[in-house]
Amino acid sequence: MFGDVARFLLNTLFTLFGAALLLRAWMQVVRMPPYNPVSNAVMQATNWIVLPLRKILPGGKIDWASLLAAYIAALVYVVLMIVLAGVDPTLMLPMLFLVALLTVVKWALNLIIWVTILMALLSWLNPQSPAMPLLYQITAPLLDPLRRILPRLGGIDLSPILLFVIVQVLLMVVTRFAVQMTLFGI
What Pfam families does this protein map onto (predicted)? Predict the structure, then answer.
């Protein structure tokens, strides 16, 4: 019982933190203005690890410091999960690095799902919400190519549903691969 609770809490904590780091990198790619509540919250939650890494990895169009921080967080998360499973992490040392990378990919896919669902819900419930322009800016690079493929049916945009399905399939593949490598879920 304690192990299940500890795994749940670790998974929740690290997934949220990893998602914040990946969102920070994503916001830089889409050139989101830094002076909005979402950007401020993400920056404040992640500055403690990203700013020191920026001294090593200067930024450009891609925020390498945030991506490296996400990878480090994933590595710590995987080691903690392995320890909780009662396995010596040194026995799985070569695989740890690949599983940490798969964990970052999993966090990124989950982030895409969350942001897409939030955008779709707000577009139906409150399209005038101040968060809509931010969500649209974040999701546009993923949804615009799908919008070119899918026709609008009676004014209904089906691209978020297609993106959700694609990301869910990718998430199943990544999760299955990680489970096969570690013999437990990440």
Answer: CCB3_YggT
CA distance 103 to 116: 20
Q: How many residues does the chain have?
A: 186
- pTM of the predicted structure, to 2 decimals: 0.92
Instruction: Say what the alpha-carbon torsion angle 53, 116, 6, 78 is, to the nearest 10 degrees.
Output: -50
Q: Are 115 and 167 in contact (CB under 8 A)?
A: no
Using H for helix, E for strand and C for coil, what is the string for the chain? Answer: CHHHHHHHHHHHHHHHHHHHHHHHHHHHHCCCCCCCHHHHHHHHHHHHHHHHHHHHCCCCCCCHHHHHHHHHHHHHHHHHHHHHCCCCHHHHHHHHHHHHHHHHHHHHHHHHHHHHHHHHHHHHHCCCCCCHHHHHHHHHHHHHHHHHHCCCECCECCHHHHHHHHHHHHHHHHHHHHHHHHCCCC
pLDDT tens, position by position, for the chain (186 residues)?
A: 788 899 999 999 999 999 999 999 999 999 988 788 888 999 999 999 999 999 999 878 899 999 999 999 999 999 999 899 888 888 888 889 999 999 999 999 999 999 999 998 998 899 898 888 889 999 999 999 999 998 878 878 889 999 999 999 999 999 888 888 776 555
Residue spans per domain, the chain: 2-182
